[in-house]
Design a protein that fits this description.
Blueprint (H helix, E strand, L loop, with lengths): L12 E3 H13 L5 H13 L1 E3 L14 E6 L4 E8 L10 E3 L3 H6 L7 E5 L5 E10 L7
Parallel strand pairs: 1-2, 4-5
Antiparallel strand pairs: 3-4, 3-7, 6-7
Helix pairs in contact: 1-2
């Protein structure tokens, strides 16, 4: 089944304090990771910001566990979105400073986004589930 995705990016939501931290992180990585840095800054600038207490539970935030489908390959993955120092692909913890991580932040369950991968090829990512962290997971 082929899904038809809107050409523009879907609305996204971010926690205000996370947006500040992610903006600083993206700026600090501008030279080392220019593509991801630019994409993440674009996402932050277009996000609707919320306090942590008002963030809907079905939105991908830092430390969320997210299940998504790469519509290009049909592959389904479940990962936790983390800061670079906590990334461990063997434990399914992906960094926000990867193309997939930057593409997932702020999406809600059921939303899809067309997003470039490391090689610049466009992928369609669809969020099928979001689980918020418990205090011990962070």
């Amino acid at each position: 089944m082929t899904r038809h995705l809107a050409p523009k990016r879907p609305p996204i939501h971010m926690i205000d304090t996370e947006a500040d931290t992610l903006g600083a992180l993206a700026l600090s990585a501008e030279v080392r990771l220019p593509q991801v840095s630019h994409l993440l800054l674009q996402e932050i600038s277009r996000a609707t910001l919320h306090t942590a207490g008002r963030m809907p539970g079905d939105v991908v935030t830092m430390h969320s566990r997210v299940e998504f489908v790469d519509e290009t390959t049909g592959k389904r993955r479940a990962v936790q979105l983390v800061y670079p120092q906590n990334a461990d692909i063997a434990s399914d913890r992906i960094s926000i400073m990867t193309p997939v991580g930057a593409g997932l932040i702020g999406l809600r369950e059921g939303q899809s986004i067309r997003w470039p991968d490391r090689d610049g090829h466009e992928r369609a990512l669809t969020v099928v589930g979001v689980t918020q962290p418990q205090d011990a997971d962070v």
